[in-house]
Amino acid sequence: MAYNEFAYFYDEFNGEADYEALYAQVKARLDAHGISSGILADLGCGTGELTLMLAQAGYDMIGIDQSEEMLCVVRDKAEQLGLSGGLLLLQQDLCALDLYGTIRGAVSTFDTLNHIPDLDKAIANAAFFMEKGGVFLFDMNTPYKHQAVLGENVFTFEEEDARCVWRNHYDPDARRVTITVDIDYQETGEHFHEEFFEYTYTLAEITAALEKNGFTLESVCDGESFGPLTEESERYFFCAVKNYTQREEQ
Fold first, then answer.
1. 3-state secondary structure the chain
2. Which CATH number is 182's domain given?
3. Where is the Methyltransferase domain (predicted)?
4. With the C-alpha atoms ordered 29, 77, 158, 179, is the resulting torsion angle positive or negative?
5. pLDDT tens per residue, range 67-89
6. Does residue 13 share a domain with residue 100?
7. Between the CA atoms of 57, 74, 98 and 176, what dihedral angle is there, to the nearest 10 degrees?
8. 10-residue averages of pLDDT along the chain (250 residues)
């Protein structure tokens, strides 16, 4: 999955996202594990809001996304903030992740991992490059959100010169949501259409994938309030710790 044309409107359409609260949660978890500097990877960095906040906090950030358009937005923001020199941007599929060395931790937010049909592979790749004691902080949409919130619903977003219609279809047999995004530019009359999927993973499946790849799940909470999970939580937020390196395993 790669947001293409939608990349340029992502921040406006995601305007309700509380990046400050997310950053505070991520930074507190990193600090609790003694990770106050070093290399972090943002897996599916999108337009880079969290990536750049962590870069400003002194981390050496690697922003990774499959969408060239998303990375262009990150690059523009980084230049405006004077952060270009301390930021590495890579256009990669997380199922074919290839870094140049090890990382102290990784973040992956706003349901990036739900877009991946092979969750085990994506987690294995993150584990491969992570140092022992490294922290993996990520969120994922819950089965409840896929079934009850997205479901068959349609959402419309209006901007000054553009209109975006976001349609969802949940397939219980395939355990995935088909999402179509249509963007119409009022001034030029241009129309763009994108389609992608979100895959449903249970808490037990996510935990099993982490444990299989050398992580210990330290905690999981509601990914919006950061309080306890409920039956109607729409997002999980995970904190997992790498308990051995690939070399030790071998």
1. CCCCHHHHHHHHHCCCCCHHHHHHHHHHHHHHCCCCCCEEEEECCCCCHHHHHHHHCCCEEEEEECCHHHHHHHHHHHHHHCCHHHEEEEECCHHHCCCCCCEEEEEECCCHHHHCCCHHHHHHHHHHCEEEEEEEEEEEECHHHHHHHHCCCEEEEECCCEEEEEEEEEECCCCEEEEEEEEEECCCCCEEEEEEEEECCCHHHHHHHHHHCCEEEEEEEECCCCCCCCCCCCEEEEEEEECCCHHHHC
2. 2.20.25.110
3. 42-134
4. negative
5. 888 899 899 999 999 987 779 99
6. yes
7. 110
8. 52 67 97 96 94 96 93 92 87 94 96 96 97 97 97 88 91 97 87 93 98 97 96 98 65
**Pick from 185, 186, 241, 248: nearest CA to 216:** 241
Q: Which two tokens stand for residue 2?
A: 């790669």
The residues near 18 (Cβ < 8 Å, ≥ 6 apart) are: 224
Strands, sheet with 39-43, edge to edge from the N-terminal-most edge strand? 87-91, 60-65, 39-43, 103-108, 130-141, 235-242, 215-222
Same domain, 128 and 155: no
Angle, vertex CA 129, rays to CA 127 and CA 133, nearest 5: 65
Report how far apart, in Å, the C-alpha atoms of 226 and of each of 55, 148, 235 are: 23, 21, 10
**Residue 80 and residue 182 in one domain:** no
CA separation for the pair 126, 244 (Å, rounded)? 13
Nearest to 40 by CA among 58, 64, 59, 65: 59
